Amino acid sequence: MTSTGYVAILVAYAGGLVALGLYLSRRVSTKDFFVAGRQLPSGLIFATFLAANIGAGSTVGATGLGFSIGMSAVWWVGCAGLGSLVLAFFVGPRIYRLAVRHNFLTVGDFLEMRYSRAVRLFLGVTLWLGCLFILAAQLIAISRILDVTAGLAKPWGCALGGLVVAVYFSAGGLRTAAWLHVIQITVKIAGFCIAVPWALHAVGGWDKLHAMAAPPGYFSPVGYGLRGILSFIVLLVPNFFISPGLIQKLYGARDESAVRRGVGWQAVVLLLYA
User: What is the pTM assigned to this prediction?
Assistant: First the structure.
């Protein structure tokens, strides 16, 4: 397929997401925007969490890490699964109960109730800076993919990716994002199922890949060493049960059962994906 064909497919996909987002955003109230009316069933919680956690870092980033350190890269996404288990069965249900009791719409509401307005303001500014770097990394990853598939220059790739996300999310908030995440995660998993067999075929199969010259422990999930694995666990696992972006999503759950089942099954899929 030519680069023009790839661009046409990408534009159609992006346009479809925007159109569906605008359609779903009709008659969205403030509560719907922030917490989807607290009506998301476990299936939508599952989809929106999985779509958030399988992104540029767990695909492009994890692939690069796997090339560098071998099978020990499993801990990169594996830590996301472990942290999600903590969120599903310990942190999530407790903070959800508080959100319902005190009508929290944002994580800032919890910080103000638990600590003070000053703490909310300080952490809000700090998290804003952190999220800015995360957003930049995500847009760069989008632009890289668009460059490889369609020859689109980096500034245009960042602009297109940012525009699509901003339009459909700002139009309808969490409710719209949750439904669109169902489409996105379906596309991601389908792409993964196509890419892995194709890549293995390109190198002559798993046996030939395993026979390639590689450092000792390259094909072992613990080959990176105990210190390296512990560094992954310490640095990454907490991110998936204290992340404001993820906690905000579980605010939209229908009940505590939806939190446990949706986030819990998402954790299982993350571990398998890793």
Answer: 0.84
